[in-house]
Structure formats: C-alpha cells, structure tokens
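Throughout our pipeline, every protein is held as a single compact record rather than as scattered files. The record that follows is passed on verbatim for readers who wish to inspect the format:
___
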Amino acid sequence: MIVVGGEALIDLVPVAQPPGALVPRPGGGPYNTALALGRLGAGAAFCSRVSTDGFGEGLLAGLRAAGVDLSLVQRGPEPTTLAVPSLAPDGSAAYGFYVEGTADRLFTLPQALPAGTRALALGTCSLALEPGASAYEALLRRESGRGLLTLLDPNIRPALIADPAAYRARFLGWLPYVSVLKLSEEDARWLGGRVSDWLAAGPSAVVLTRGGRGLEVRTREGAEYAVPARRVAVADTIGAGDTVNAALLHRLSALPAGGLVDTDWPGVLAYAAHAAALTCTRAGAEPPYAAELSG
C-alpha cells in the first residue's frame, strides 16, 4: 500500500469555447498522485479531509473508480478548495486559489496507517496551510521513524505562502525524514538551495523535473542520471508532475527495504517520463492507465 496525503480540490480549467469559460476538473497534487497510482495498478490509499459538498463527492468518486482506498479520508461540511489555473502558450500553468475555510485545511493526524503500508507521499498546498500542515508534518515524521519510504514534492504555490523565509526553513526541517525529494526546476529556484545540501540533510535521492528537457536524479552516493522528455503534442501540463510522483512511487516502493542504493534510476526515470508525457496530451489532470505504458 502507498499512502498519499494532502489536498483534493477542484481546478477551474479555462477552455477555448465559450470565451472565458471555466470547466471544473478534479485536482490537487496529492489527489492527482493518488489517482495516477490507482490507474497504474498500484495499491494506493488517499489520506485527506474532503468536503461533503458536491465537489467533494465527485472527487471521491474519481478515486473510487481508480481503485484507491478511501478508509483514511476524513469528511467535513466546509467547502472544497478551488484552484484557477492560467495556461501559458506552452501549456504550463500558474494558479490562483480559494482556500479560506475549506475542508482540506482541517485535516487531523490519523492514529495509524493501514497494515502493509510501504510508502508515504506528501506535498503541495497541504504543507503550506495551517492547521492541516502541522498534522501532515507530524505524519511524515512518525512514518519516517517507522521506516517507510517517504516522498516529498513541495510543488510550490507562492500565492499560498505568506512568509517565504519561514516556509524555506520549515522545508529544511522536513528533509531528515524524506527518502526521495522530487521537485521542479521552478521549485528549486524558489527554495534557493542546492541539491548537494538537500542530499546532505537526509534524502537518498533528489529527482528534478525539467519540463520539456526531461528528468534527472542525483543520489546521496554521488550518482547522477538523466532521461529526455518524450515528444508529444501538449494539451497542458496540469498533473504531469503528480504523475511523475506516482510513477516513482510505483517503481521504488516495490524495492526491498534499503533498495534505493541499487535502484535502476534510468529505467525508473524513463517510466516516469513516459507517464508524464501521456498526461500532457490531455486537458486537465488525466494520468494514464497501466496498459498505456506497456508498449
């Protein structure tokens, strides 16, 4: 079982017709990661607090259809968080958010994760918005201490971070509890640190996504690998990074304990690049199914 903790929200995605129209689509980095894991055939569970409103019901229906375990989902009457992406000509997205008083901010620490849990993934808005952020941080520390593989994707949303300096300091405090740090080049620039320093702080590997230039990884042992991006017709990039998270988790969590040292990183990165490329060919966050990656 791979547990993904964090927000589920609604992306109001711009469409060409009629002009100015926004179409609601399920989203949120952790939600997309859990959905992608389910579609890839990995045993996945979603750990969050989801509204009982119509959007919340639709979000859970999408996860249920992908075979994701919902036993860790908390429910509340507060509204669902809304995100409004604006798309650049290359399909990349920037986001505005409606987060005040929303359900996912009120997440509380669960007593235990399911027996057989092998990995935990966290990131995005859930680690930036209190009071839920402290609960997710406590979950990371607890489960890392139990020996779980942990993946952190900060997936920085500057509009949600009131005190950048405080967030950067908090980020450094998470690293001793992280097995794999995955982040984009944009995240790395915003955080302002160096990969070598992050590796020294705790992670076994740092995976960097580079948009159309592919993926690369650096490990604590000093190894470096890179793979190119697959060339596709890009509809948008929404959910591509989250699909990378899922692909990494799907492959890495199958390794024996301590197996990151001997990981076939070129193979893992190529698999993740393929999955992300397929997501980019579709509007909104629509990660691929396992059968689409078998060719």
Residues 265-280 form the longest helix (16 residues).
